[in-house]
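Researcher: Predict the fold of Probable protein-translocating porin PorT.
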Amino acid sequence: MRKHLFLFGFILLSQVASAQLFSKEKIRNLETEDKKRLSYGFFLGYNSYDFNFDYNTDQADILVEKTGGFSVGLIGNLRIMEYMDLRFEPGLYITTRNLVYNESYFQGMEFTDTDLKREVKSTYIHFPLLMKFSTKRINNFKPFVVAGLSTALNLSSNENNPDDNSSGQFRTKKNMFFYEVGFGVDFYLYFFKFTPSIRGVFALNDEIIQDKDPNSPWTSNVNSMKTRGVFLNFTFQ
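Model: Structure tokens for Probable protein-translocating porin PorT follow.
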């Protein structure tokens, strides 16, 4: 899903950018927009989160069923120099992932179909600090790449819940840290700047909370579980 999303976004941005590049349009919209020291905006977006597992022993993979999520947030942009900006993009990211376990995890135990699946709901308050590196503006568009670090607060983590998977509660940590990389294109319209962008996010810390039982079929074989995902954002400035 993430590969398809990246490919779709790249083709979309390439097609629109090519249309701008080879058009005969010479009127430059928002001529002084990039000369502002500070600028602000907001974004709406789509997110697709996944988990990357590392296991203690060689066993069947835990499958992750992903569902698309919704994102919304604000943007603060500080111009450092002509082709470099520092961006702060706090936002709300809502998603759900379902973990599907193989029956081999419950060998020698009684289990039901419910035990083979765990729903992991995540509501992240996301705080990325990004460096934006742009090319020279051509007509009314300007490609760029971004990279940076972020932290997030997961409001749906259940970290302090005394119940664990033995009671049907899959717990994750509340505080997360990520690195992010992506690309996009600024389009200078008549009244505002519109920016579609794609960004990959990769967790730096383990997110799983182990069950109380050291032999738990849900967590004992998991050495680490790290979030990764793709953001498709549409920015208005």
